[in-house]
Specification:
The structure holds two protein chains of two kinds. Chain A is an alpha+beta fold. Chain A contains nine helices and 21 strands. Helices cover about 70% and strands about 0% of the residues of chain B. Chain B has a two-stranded antiparallel sheet with strand order 1-2. Chain B is globular, with a radius of gyration of 25 Å. Classes of the chains: A alpha+beta, B mainly alpha. The complex binds adenosine-5'-triphosphate and magnesium ion.
């Protein structure tokens, strides 16, 4: 079991900077998710931890041991790849045994034919087979032991890949989008199973995904990355509730947060689309701001009332339990989305104007640099937006 | 397209293909046929494919002073026994097997790590090295035969097995072919092997080699066929010692031994020499074609 620390890790490919100084402390036994859009450097970060890629500058420590110059196999980590990367010519059992054979047998014992002559090899092999079998039992893949990877379904391959990572009892598991090749229902199932596995093993998991649902449901903490920067690190609900950067706010949450243009005056009062909001800037600073409101914090009004936002309904997206209303609003670039219960919005028809209000205390305001700005408590003297 | 037009098109296509097949197969057919017939039938061009197989007299047998009734035999028996008795054909074939197998094994031992480095390791100057490999592909062996011969002669290696094997131990074609194949092996597989604790050499032999079997088979056929059939190079370096001769070289020596125009035994010897290749090809036909189509060099 081990904690992992990254200090000011950068990575450059030629002149292209892929990671711009990542600082990350992963606690022992933690399930940490690296999440971010495609190409933001998640895999690169993971591969640097694994030692498959060398960082340009910065330090990687595992359990306070500096491992910058330590070979991947000596770092006592296991990795699960998106493509599973099983050895295609070996059976499932041999796949499971390979990491143990490489670790426990010496050079002579691994030689084909000659190896059988080395005394003591039999006992070691028996132990290895036993270990592989235990893992196969835990993952319920015993009936597959004799098959080759080509004869397995995607889900089964995924289990074997997990098994190959587990046999060595590594200090930490690194997983690079291990579920992204599975179909939707299996993916949801495997999420639960991975969480369970994490609880049972008590090992450190570093999990890379671009799927925020996986990040939100499985992790103890999630690290949101974008363009080679680590933007925010925290428990999923904190990241969801209190995004510190407008990019995080927009990336986490589905449908994504609505961003409305606003303006603050010298008193810190914010006006947004002609309405004055009930919260103002804690440190007043005149200028443009972005007002973020999540779809579930917007409520449709049956008729026009004072201090309402309005927009033209362009699309009703029915998900059964929820209904998303897509609205075109004057002065807003993207369509605004409202989450509602189907029965609450029976009356709204596509093409008509819909009025809605924002729940008090739910808005998140970002400055022009994209950073979050603090607000005062809701002020009753100001108008409710 | 109407039925007629397409029928005509098919007919034309097939006639051309058939004509091509005849051109390719005719020499082979003649070789087989001559190896079965008596000298008289060969000379008069009669007897169809197998000949009449009438009893004939072996003139050498008579010369050796045997009674005529012991020298009566069927042409097919005569041709093939002559092939084996007149020249150490078996010895030539064993030489051929030893040389071709050694060449192939050494080529693989050298080409796989090279191909692995060229396809999967990032190092300074990799593209230049690969460019050199391509460049070497363009050099015909005949152009460097003389310098090679002189070098071998200087170290006293002419008329040895080494002279037959060493110049071919590095196959740039093999390196190129395997490199192209390795490019298609996913990087993740190699990274997984590294994490599992394999060294780079272990990866080559334990991961790359097994996944590359079809490509290796294709390369093996190219290599074995080329060196089994090679006449030029053995002719250059094997000058005196007949014990070292490979089958094609032996075949030529053999011809000069026979008096006159006895094509029968010679064709029998040729048949014996090509048979191993034909049999191996028939056995491995499917894998071979798989290998060639997969490596993308049709
Ligand atoms: N060997 C390389 N040479 C040059 N650029 C590279 C190399 N490997 C990765 N990159 C670049 O580094 C950036 C980060 O890549 P990385 O694989 O870490 O992204 P990612 O966050 O894992 O994305 P995804 O979700 O698509 O897997 C990308 O812009 C990619 O183009
Ligand atoms: Mg990735």
């Amino acid at each position: 079991m081990a904690g992992i620390t990254l200090r000011q890790v950068t990575k450059k490919y030629g002149t292209l900077s892929v990671l711009n100084g990542i600082d990350l402390d992963i606690a022992d036994g933690e399930f940490l998710t690296l999440v971010g859009p495609s190409g933001c450097g998640k895999s690169t970060t993971l591969r640097i931890i694994a030692g498959l890629e060398a960082q340009s500058t910065g330090d990687v420590k595992i359990d306070d041991r500096l491992v910058n110059d330590v070979r991947p196999s000596q770092r006592d980590l296991a990795m699960v790849f998106q493509s599973y990367a099983l050895y295609p010519h070996l059976t499932v059992q041999q796949n499971l045994m390979t990491p143990l054979r490489m670790r426990d047998l010496n050079f002579w014992e691994r030689l084909p034919l000659l190896g059988f002559l080395v005394p003591g090899r039999r006992a070691k092999m028996a132990q290895i087979e036993e270990d592989a079998r235990k893992v196969a039992e835990a993952l319920k893949i015993v009936p597959l032991l004799g098959r080759k990877p080509g004869q397995l379904s995607g889900g089964q391959r995924q289990r074997v890949a997990l098994g190959r990572a587990m046999v060595r009892n590594p200090a930490a598991f690194l997983m690079d989008e291990p579920l992204s090749n599975l179909d939707a229902s299996l993916r949801v199932h495997m999420r639960a199973e991975l969480s369970e596995l994490h609880r049972d093993l008590g090992a450190t998991f570093v999990y890379v995904t671009h799927d925020q649902a996986e990040a939100l449901t499985m992790s103890d903490r999630m690290a949101v990355m974008m363009d080679g920067d680590l933007l925010q690190l925290g428990p999923p609900d904190e990241v969801y509730e209190d995004p510190q950067d407008i990019r995080v706010a927009e990336f986490i949450g589905s449908p994504k947060m609505n961003i409305l243009p606003g303006e603050s005056d010298a008193n810190g009062t914010i006006t947004c689309l002609g309405l004055t909001l009930d919260e103002g800037l804690a440190t007043p600073q005149p200028g443009k701001v972005s007002v973020g409101l999540r779809p579930e914090h917007l409520h449709v009004q049956p008729r026009e009332t004072a201090e309402c936002f309005s927009g033209r309904l362009t699309y009703k997206e029915n998900l059964g339990s929820d209904l998303f209303l897509h609205l075109e609003m004057a002065g807003v670039e993207n369509k605004a989305v409202i989450r509602a219960k189907p029965h609450e919005v029976d009356f709204a028809a596509v093409g008509e104007t819909v009025w809605f209000k924002a729940e008090s205390g739910r808005m998140r305001v970002f400055g022009t640099d994209g950073k979050r700005v603090a607000l005062t408590a809701p002020d009753t003297k100001r108008k409710v937006g | 397209m109407t039925f007629r037009a397409s029928w005509l098109g098919e007919f034309l296509k097939h006639s051309v293909l058939l004509a091509g097949a005849v051109v390719v197969l005719l020499p082979f057919y003649l070789m087989l046929s001559y190896s079965l017939k008596s000298p008289a039938e060969i000379e008069s061009n009669t007897g169809g494919f197998v000949g009449a197989q009438e009893m004939m007299t072996d003139r050498r047998c008579l010369k050796a002073g045997n009674p005529p009734e012991d020298c009566e035999m069927r042409p097919i028996v005569y041709n093939y026994t002559a092939a084996f008795s007149e020249a150490p054909l078996l010895r030539y074939m064993l030489n051929g097997v030893f040389v071709t197998v050694s060449i192939f094994v050494i080529q693989v031992i050298i080409a796989l790590p090279c191909a692995y480095a060229l396809s999967k390791l990032r190092f300074w100057g990799r593209n230049v090295v690969f460019g050199l490999v391509i460049f070497c592909l363009l050099i015909p062996v005949h152009a460097i035969a003389l310098p090679l011969y002189i070098m071998l002669a200087k170290v006293g290696l002419t008329n040895t097995y080494a002279a037959l094997i060493v110049p071919w131990s590095i196959s740039v074609f093999g390196i190129f072919l395997m490199r192209q194949f390795f490019m298609t092996v996913p990087d993740d597989l190699i990274d997984a092997a590294r994490i599992d604790g394999m060294s780079e050499f272990s990866i080559v032999w334990r991961v790359m080699l097994p996944t590359a079997i079809p490509a290796l088979l294709a390369f093996g056929i190219f290599s074995v066929v080329a060196h089994w059939n090679d006449y030029y190079w053995p002719r250059v370096v094997i000058t005196g010692n007949r014990d070292l001769m490979t089958p094609p070289l032996g075949l030529r020596m053999f011809k000069s031994d026979l008096d006159g125009n006895e094509y029968g035994p010679m064709m029998a010897a040729s048949t014996v020499i090509v048979m191993p290749l034909v049999i191996v090809f028939l056995l491995a036909q499917r894998r071979f074609i798989e290998g060639i189509t997969m490596t993308g060099m049709k």
